[in-house]
Amino acid sequence: xxxxWANIVAKKTAKDGANSKxxxxxxxxxxxxxKKGDPDPETNSALKFVIDRAKQAQVPKHIIDKAIDKAKxxxxxxxxxxxxxxxxxxxxxxxxxxxxxxxxxxxxNVRAAFGKNGGNMGASGSVSYLFxxxxxxVFAGEDADSVFEQLLEADVDxxxxxxxxxTVTVYTAPTDLHKAILALQETGTTxxxxxxxxxxxxxxxVLEGDDLAIFEKLYDALEDDxxxxxxxxxxxxx
Length: 238
What we know:
By secondary structure, this protein is an alpha+beta fold. The protein contains eight helices and eight strands.
């Protein structure tokens, strides 16, 4: 699993670096987090978490600063979180998390993306019960055992630690992700590749040929929607 995260990080970093849509999505997420609380990341842990993730995705500083400055203004634009679930070809499943100022528009767009690209949108809970919500932290390292011990000593609810090809992957209870990050920082780990709340599939499917082409088209259509923040899937390699 460790290699999987390393590969996904490399793949997404290469894509994110040239993708202004990714910058825009992080801009919305940063704005919404700053608007909910203090626009200072030192006193707003949710905002700091989003900014850290944005930096991992190579979002430029001026995009981050612009979103925070907007939140400091008098705008009363509000964003609502949403989750949609659905199916692609050959047992593939997707969970789509959104952040939008227009719920009706987003719901219609997500439904259309499924319907026009070989998928079917399901009811709430039709897919998510086959995924586990976990905190995921990835960083360069070799010694999984010592990391596990450090986290236990910090009273972190850590579920697993894996080391593979120079990368350590930590899985925590979702409520303990921030606690784990702080514990690792206190022991000198600061350069994280991933710090995310993830929906991890309980099993994965491998798609090939036409099925893979259909799934990629569906995934890309959803990802291109400006209101879609995150997509989770059980398809290997995504």
